[in-house]
Amino acid sequence: MSDKPPPEQLTVALLGKRAELRNIIGNMILGSNAFNTESNILVVGETSSFKIINTPDFFDEESLLPDQHIIDLMALSHPGPDLFILTIDPENTQEVDVVAQISKLEHTFGEKITEHLVVTLPDMESFHSLGHLKEIFNIWLAPDESMASECRKWCSDRDPFLYDYKNYSQDVVTKRKTALEKILEKQRCGGDPLCHHGRAGNIANGVPNIFNIILLGLTGTGKSASANTILTAGDCDLHSGQLFKSEPSSMPVTTQCEVKITMKPFGAPVRLVDTPDFFNDQLEHSQAHVEECKMYCQPGHCVVLLVLQLSRFTDAEVGILEKLEDKLGWKIRESTIVLLTHGEDLEGSLEEFIDARAPLKNIVESCSNRYHLFRNTSDNKKQVFELIKKIPNYNTRFPKLTDKTFISECFVC
Ligand SMILES: Nc1nc2c(ncn2[C@@H]2O[C@H](COP(=O)(O)OP(=O)(O)O)[C@@H](O)[C@H]2O)c(=O)[nH]1
Ligand SMILES: [Mg+2]
């Protein structure tokens, strides 16, 4: 137990084989999108609360510079980081692979590293099957929005890790520290890829700047169920605690904005924002919920899914788009897709269905004819891919998402 208070700025060494996973976790802790590089270089991201040293996989057998990366990590976190986070990728969740990576870390930095190590696992299955390793080091299921506070909690009762210099020369490390600090200082706000400064304008309204999908609509239309359909397209092993609460009820089940960040199936982090029905009389503090929603629902940073139940278009939904625009303060129709649920109720073609209902047709046309049909009772993942393809500029937003990657990410389960 430490008798010193933890430092204002915690230093975290971020390790792991896959850059995209390290980036997601680093961004989540920093609350920005400071890390976006795929190349195998060491990147530092900083806010007043955290300094994150995002380190390429120095155990990669093809790495030409493993010692250089290790020395740079040691120099930048001298005399030792507060925390090491090892991100495990989906291909290496077997116990033997996880233990092999940790053994290499022990070999490089000494056995005491496990006392300062958090291992993040990418899915529920490995989280359960490796639960017994918790006795040795902490295990988290990633990504999770509470990571920054978890890191702080984790560091609050222990002193930072201190490097010993069995394998590397202290003299070399401290010389490198001086050199790197000079380089970083010069580049701090210069846009150089070696330094992504977490404070450099990446935070909009205090909300980390990642793409948002916001589900809006009346109670019971299937907002939460549709958000779950999207989430489970990437990972069908999610347990109920990881999903949005969705059930038949005339009372609002979702009573506040709820957020989950997911990487799959988009190939990039996306925040799903489930909302309560702002027009439901039984919703308390509805203006506060609208204000919260506004933080995520900003032009250029989101797509809105206006959720309507296919065969239950009600009078209350006539004019809903205008009413929502009034509340949110901008023309959300520019970024809205009308999402019809209960797809199994459709007889005939969806186009004919919409054409035959003037108020619905009117909404769809206001949204530049972007509409989609979900059957939330089905686990057909293709319906999710087809929806994603209707997001304006989806291919520049999600450049990694192709038919092929979608299928390999989603159809494994
Ligand atoms: N059969 C069927 N039920 C659905 C569909 N979408 C939603 N539901 C059900 O409708 C009910 C209300 O859905 P929910 O997502 O909680 O609505 P919300 O209030 O808009 O979040 C739940 O029981 C869902 O299971 C669908 O496509 N088909
Ligand atoms: Mg709901």
Written as H for each helix and E for each strand, in order along the chain, the element string is: EHEEHEHEHEHHEEEEHEEHEHEHHEHHH
Q: How many H/I helical runs?
A: 14
Shape: elongated
**CATH H-level superfamily title of the largest domain:** P-loop containing nucleotide triphosphate hydrolases
Count all strands and give the number. 15
Radius of gyration: 24 Å
CATH fold type of the largest domain: Rossmann fold
Low-confidence stretches: 189-208
CATH class of the largest domain reads Alpha Beta
* Overall mean pLDDT: 85
Domain count, please report it.
2
Task: Write a concise keyword list for the protein shown above.
413 residues, Rossmann fold, 2 domains, six-stranded mixed β-sheet, 14 helices, 33% helix, elongated, binds guanosine-5'-diphosphate
Task: Describe the structure in your own words.
With 413 residues, this protein is α/β, with parallel strands linked by helices. It folds into two domains: 10-204, Rossmann fold; 210-410, Rossmann fold (3-Layer(aba) Sandwich), CATH 3.40.50.300. 33% of the residues lie in helices and 17% in strands. Strand 5, helix 4 and strand 6 form a beta-alpha-beta unit. Magnesium ion is lined by residues 223-224, 246, 253-254, 274. Belongs to the TRAFAC class TrmE-Era-EngA-EngB-Septin-like GTPase superfamily. AIG1/Toc34/Toc159-like paraseptin GTPase family. IAN subfamily. This is AIG1-type G domain-containing protein.
